[in-house]
Amino acid sequence: MAGSTTFTDDELKNFDDAMAKVRAVSDTLNGAQPTPEQQAQMAAAVQDSGLDVTRFNTLSNAVAADPALAARIRVVNATPPAPGTPAAAVTDDELNRFVTAMTQIRAVTAEVQNNQATPEQSAKLTAAVEASGLTTERFNAISQLVSATPYLQAKAQLAGARLEKGTSQ
């Protein structure tokens, strides 16, 4: 990817800040067209963010079309866990393995009836974790950390969006 389709973390943060201000104005419109004053407020929010209107619009269209880019915004806005904490010890590789296993697990659990997995379904659940290369204990620990850590949640969503898209970028 190049040019207008490659966005820096700073651009994504600036876009998200500007979008929050633009939404605040647009939420007051109730479907009506913005007044010239409201248009000026929205344009000022974009310009104050450090983005020009063209780049903002390019980003807006890209975010609307790409769930992975939207997930990346959540990552750049989330606070990473403090060094030395269990959440900080989760590597990108482990998180990718976890997300891959969870994708398979969700597919199996969608077929489970009355919260009772058949022996075949239980075997598929176990196989999904084992195929990930994570131990059951590590998989469960990561699951708990993702549930409790907004940063890891955001990174897991990004990994899931990339997995769905078929890319690692």
Describe this protein's structure:
The protein has 169 residues and is mostly helical. The protein has 2 domains: 3-65, no CATH class; 87-165. Helix content is 69%, strand content 0%. It has helices at 9-26, 36-48, 53-65, 67-77, 92-109, 119-132, 136-148, 150-165. Helix 1 crosses helix 4. The model has no long low-confidence stretch (mean pLDDT 90).
End-to-end CA span? 10 Å
H/E series:
HHHHHHHH
Task: Give the low-confidence spans.
Answer: none
Would you count the extended β strands for me?
0
Query: Into how many domains do the coordinates divide?
Result: 2
How many H/I helices? 8
Structural class: mainly alpha
> Helicity, in percent?
55-70%
Beta-strand percent range: under 5%
Query: Which overall shape is indicated by the principal axes computed on the Cα atoms?
Result: elongated
Q: What value does the Rg take, in angstroms?
A: 20 Å
Give the rounded overall mean pLDDT: 90
Largest sheet: none
List the helices and strands and how they pair.
Elements: H1 9-26, H2 36-48, H3 53-65, H4 67-77, H5 92-109, H6 119-132, H7 136-148, H8 150-165
Helix pairs in contact: 1-2, 1-4, 3-4, 4-8, 5-6, 5-8, 7-8
